[in-house]
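Researcher: Let's do a round of design. I'm pasting the structure tokens now; please hold your answer until I've finished.
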């Protein structure tokens, strides 16, 4: 009987050893699977976190660019307003000085010399010489010099001083009015004074 008990004990020990080995293998397999699941989840969370960070950085960059663009546009608007004010003041001041010059005693002779110079430019033909409404006081004197070819321009026409000449025969028109001369300088003025806005 003792032999049977020993065999049963031996058999039980073998079974328990086998069960222990299987248990050990199952535990190792489970640990590997859990580790793989953990790594997969960790990678997934890290990937999502990276995506969230990247989206956050893009949003911050976009917001920064929008704020910068708005600030640049606001600055350009302010600069443009100041620039327009400067230009307006400079040209208004110059216009006033030109008006003052038309009241100067030297102006009539200057006007005559401009008309003579412009007449040589437009050549012979059926000529009309236009002068400013404010220069009407010189009309008789000018018509005596230029054979009744001088007329006063419309009161609303921007002129300041100087003249405009039309050669109807050759279809040539020359605008030598102070107003045209002054405002044709606007672009050059912007370049020379570095008042252009990029």
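Researcher: That's everything. Go ahead.
Model: Designed sequence:
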């Amino acid at each position: 009987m003792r032999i049977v008990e020993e065999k049963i004990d031996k058999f039980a020990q073998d079974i328990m050893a086998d069960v222990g080995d299987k248990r050990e293998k199952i535990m190792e397999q489970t640990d590997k699977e859990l580790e793989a699941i953990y790594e997969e989840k960790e990678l997934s969370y890290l990937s999502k976190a990276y995506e969230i960070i990247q989206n956050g950085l893009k949003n911050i960059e976009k917001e920064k660019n929008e704020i910068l663009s708005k600030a640049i546009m606001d600055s350009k608007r302010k600069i443009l307003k100041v620039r327009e004010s400067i230009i307006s003041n400079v040209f208004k001041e110059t216009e006033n000085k030109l008006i003052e010059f038309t009241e100067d005693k030297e102006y009539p002779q200057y006007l005559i010399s401009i008309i003579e110079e412009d007449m040589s430019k437009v050549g012979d033909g059926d000529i009309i010489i236009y002068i400013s409404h404010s220069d009407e006081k010189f009309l008789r004197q000018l018509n005596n010099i230029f054979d009744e070819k001088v007329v006063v321009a419309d009161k609303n026409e921007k002129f300041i001083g100087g003249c405009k000449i039309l050669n109807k025969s050759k279809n040539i028109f020359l605008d030598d009015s102070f107003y045209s001369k002054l405002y044709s300088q606007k672009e050059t003025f912007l370049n020379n004074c570095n008042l252009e806005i990029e």
